[in-house]
Design a protein that fits this description.
With 125 residues, this protein is mainly alpha-helical. It is built from four helices and no strands.
Length: 125
């Protein structure tokens, strides 16, 4: 799975014709409808993730997760088209949050290591 993370950037590298199409869709739909659709798609992604947790990552649940992620990424592109997202600001928040997540993981790993040493459990490994 690690090698796949480098490919995430491919998900938003649309050809110029697709970008123009998404821009047209966003502007024809307008702000209100685009924002409503985006919130609905985010809710559907949440529901899809919940089903994967409940039933497992296979069959229709796997397919639905992929579909809902695609829908949310399209909505993100449309929000950019409408001027709701500043890529530099998003990137800054992304860096901040990634660093915070890494720090939390390091802290949790350290806590698990200490707990393992204290109680002699092997959960840390």
């Amino acid at each position: 799975m690690f090698k796949e993370i480098g490919r995430v950037v491919e998900l938003l590298k649309y050809p110029q014709s697709i970008i123009l199409g998404l821009d047209k869709v966003a502007h024809v739909n307008g702000d209100d409808l685009t924002l409503t659709i985006t919130s609905e798609e985010c809710a559907e992604l949440i529901q899809s993730i919940t089903k994967v947790k409940r039933y497992g990552f296979h069959d229709k649940y796997e397919e639905n997760l992929h579909e809902e992620v695609a829908d949310v990424l399209i909505c993100i592109a449309e929000l950019v088209c409408l001027g709701y997202l500043d890529i530099d600001k998003v990137r800054d928040y992304q860096k901040l949050k990634i660093n915070r997540e890494i720090e939390r993981a390091i802290q949790k790993e350290e806590e698990l290591r200490k707990e393992s040493e204290k109680y002699g459990t092997s959960e840390w490994q």
